[in-house]
Design goal:
seven-stranded antiparallel β-sheet, 18 helices, 2 domains, 32% helix
């Protein structure tokens, strides 16, 4: 097989849009990705006979070049797959280095040191992306590994056109990292509308294309990464890289309304949280009857449900290989019924009374479906835009700041304002808790919806709202993805967040304020949903208008 770099999609019968694509085809594959480059590469792979996993691998490597604020080989993520009628889940989340300690981000007074877990080499977990993509390809791929990495090499070597906004959370990255990391040496000259080349990254990708993960975890690239860590006083060693493993896990399964939802298990909180959100809402169905979408009543009911889910998230969830998490109890129907009974449909429940119920920012997502009905929902991340700002010299890729997703101190909030306990405390080799929730919905054993988003703690609440829009309000997928979304996470107290794309204003905002809520623009967009809806034999994609994504249907 030969993949063309430029022009990339010569001879491919496709339709393209930044918002929605629909094609009534018997043998259509589709992709919804956060930028045009990743989408076009996936389309080409599908056209050349690759399956959804092949397209996912090629897209992920391409985004590591063209979407550097989140696409990565220096981070990690989760992949939910549906292959030949069976669900799978691949955990390639980063892990804490062996030298990491529980109090590594605390000062002599026992207080969290500002920015230490988000800027600089000490913020990085051991990357998992290259190993994860390799494992997915090894198990399910059809096309040669080298061919799937080739398009990314071309974009790194020949360049791509920089978008207007290459960030989600941090618009001041050059100033933020100045004097603290080598970010400016590599990305300081990146300007919208210009061609941007990354020659060191191209060579790294060439080595990965030739040698697979051995280069990244044991070979020349590994040596460069370890050298950068030593230079910047980081913790990742050669032993950390050599011992890294991606893990196949059982996906979280939620049966509801005649459908089956497959999504992320621990160490993501997303699957348990989605199960709770869906379950509690089903228990409170009478409260939602006749309630208009995104009315004050509707938003209040969501907030009441979400605050309880976040109370459980903070107290119980962590890496299942290190913490005993009561998963079965958290999603038990009796427990869901108990939590639902605590919801006050008419007034705000006091934050102080919302406790754990049991006794005792830059990420990116893409969705792919192939003509055989196989699907991949993939979310991977550097955490905040451009990770910790450290570029591996000689290798040209950015490192993550995922260590911020641990609980640096019980009761202390991370960069997304989310609290944690010892269940998510830092330990060597441990995976940090995540909210990433790559999700596949099936009906009668066939893929019905593939969906996911970035957004930190907003991820599973955003997906929950899209599910409601599609299945409860029968909205077309493009409208569901573009609809107003809100977020509440228990703390800050009685605060409902919205974004500038679909502001929460006017009568609805006034009614919520009268109830006692604080309404706040969070300052960044609420996710970047990439979704594919399968309607019988037809396929439709939707890329969130909040981002610069593209949907392509491939005949």
């Amino acid at each position: 097989m030969k993949l063309f770099i430029k022009p990339l999609i010569v001879g491919v019968a496709i339709a393209v849009s930044s918002h929605s694509v629909f094609a009534s085809l018997l043998d259509a594959g589709a992709v919804a990705a956060p930028d045009e480059y990743g989408a076009k590469v996936a389309a080409q792979v599908l056209k050349e006979g690759g399956n959804a996993v092949d397209a996912a691998v090629a897209t992920a490597f391409t985004l590591a070049v063209t979407y550097p604020e989140a696409g990565n080989i220096g981070g990690g993520g989760f992949m939910t797959l549906y292959v030949k009628g069976k669900p799978y889940f691949l955990d390639y989340r980063e892990v804490a280095p062996k030298a990491a300690t529980k109090d590594m981000y605390l000062n002599e007074k026992g207080e969290v040191t500002e920015n230490l877990s988000v800027i600089g080499a000490k913020a990085s977990g051991v990357p998992g992306t290259v190993m994860g993509l390799w494992e997915a390809h090894k198990r399910f791929g059809k096309l040669p590994w080298r061919d799937l990495v080739t398009p990314a090499i071309g974009y790194a070597r020949n360049g791509f056109t920089v978008a207007e906004k290459q960030y989600q959370y941090r618009s001041n990255v050059n100033e933020l990292f100045k004097g603290k990391t080598n970010f400016g040496e590599y990305f300081g000259a990146m300007k919208a509308g210009t061609n941007f080349k990354q020659p060191e990254l191209a060579k790294t990708l060439e080595r990965i294309a030739e040698n697979g993960p051995d280069d990244f975890y044991k070979g020349f690239t590994a040596k460069l990464l370890v050298a950068q860590m030593k230079k910047d006083d980081g913790l990742i060693t050669a032993a950390d890289l050599e011992s890294y493993q991606a893990k196949w896990r059982e996906p979280m399964r939620v049966d509801w309304q005649g459908k089956t939802l497959y999504t992320a298990p621990l160490p993501s909180s997303g699957g348990i949280s989605l199960a709770q959100l869906i379950g509690i809402k089903e228990q409170r169905a009478a409260d939602f009857k006749g309630v208009e979408l995104n009315s004050a009543k509707y938003i209040h009911l969501l907030a009441e449900i979400e605050k309880r889910v976040f109370a459980d998230r903070a107290n119980y969830m962590g890496d299942p290989d290190f913490a005993k998490v009561p998963v079965d109890k958290l999603i038990d129907p009796a427990y869901i019924k108990q939590r639902a009974s605590e919801v006050n449909p008419d007034a705000i429940s006091a934050t102080e009374s919302v406790r754990p119920g049991l006794e005792s920012h830059q990420t990116t997502h893409f969705s792919i479906v192939d003509a055989d009905g196989n699907a991949v929902s993939n979310t991977y991340t550097l955490n905040f835009d451009y990770g910790n700002g450290v570029v591996v010299a000689g290798a040209g890729f950015l490192l993550n700041d995922e260590m911020d997703d641990f609980s640096a101190k019980p009761g202390a909030a991370n960069g997304f304002g989310v609290l944690g306990t010892d269940a998510n405390a830092i330990e060597p080799g441990k995976r940090m808790l995540s909210s990433m929730s790559p999700t596949i919905v099936t009906r009668d054993g066939q893929v019905d919806l593939v969906v996911g988003t970035p957004g930190g703690s907003r991820i599973f609440t955003s997906i929950f709202q899209v599910l409601n829009d599609v299945y409860d309000f029968n909205m077309p997928i493009a409208k569901a993805v573009a609809a107003q979304r809100v977020h509440h996470q228990l703390l800050p107290k009685d605060t409902i967040y919205f974004d500038s794309y679909a502001p929460l204003t006017g009568k609805v905002a006034d009614e919520l304020k009268t109830m006692g809520y604080t309404i706040e623009d969070q300052g960044w967009l609420l996710g970047d949903i990439q979704a594919i809806k399968v309607n019988g034999k037809s396929v439709e994609t939707a890329s969130d208008p909040r981002g610069r994504g593209t949907g392509i249907v491939v005949k």
